[in-house]
Design brief:
There is one protein chain. By secondary structure, the protein is of the alpha+beta class. It is built from one helix and seven strands; from the N terminus they run βββββββα. It has one helix at residues 102-123, and strands at residues 17-19, 25-27, 35-38, 50-55, 58-60, 63-75, 90-94. The strands form two sheets. Strands 3, 4, 5, 6 and 7 form a five-stranded antiparallel sheet that branches. Residues 1-25 are annotated as: Disordered. Residues 1-23 have a biased composition (Polar residues).
């Protein structure tokens, strides 16, 4: 699930009906605020279809290999997975071992705080 989001795809906020690859129809469930990527629906022939949603990626200037984002599994009823340790709505960090200046460390802290705020907004839905 923890793929780094980079492209705005499949993010229509309307309430139309969305066709799936298997041909069944799912409601176009509203995305959590700040989502910039929503994957295709999975398990569409079950009673619990789901998709992965991701926020924008935040980073640290001058350190392109440090990325912070929020990701979750969203169900067709609009709820987010809260139970599974891997799939529940979470802040994700992708970083190599990096030396940071004080400014860069503060920028990373700001990115983490912004992601935590966004995650709390998703959970409050």
């Amino acid at each position: 699930m923890a793929t780094t989001p980079s492209v705005n795809m499949r993010t229509t906020p309307s309430m139309s009906v969305e066709p799936t690859p298997s041909g069944c129809q799912l409601p176009d469930v509203p995305l959590p605020p700040g989502v910039v990527y929503a994957d295709l629906w999975e398990d569409t022939n079950t009673d619990r279809p789901w998709r992965v949603v991701n926020s924008a990626t935040r980073g640290v200037e001058g350190k392109s290999d440090i990325q912070v984002w929020v990701a979750a599994v969203q169900y067709a009823d609009g709820s987010l997975d809260q139970d599974d340790a891997i799939d529940r709505a979470s802040v994700w960090i992708d970083a190599c071992q990096e030396a940071l200046s004080a400014r860069q460390a503060r920028e990373l802290a700001d990115a983490l705080l912004a992601a935590a705020d966004e995650l709390e907004g998703w959970a409050a839905r």
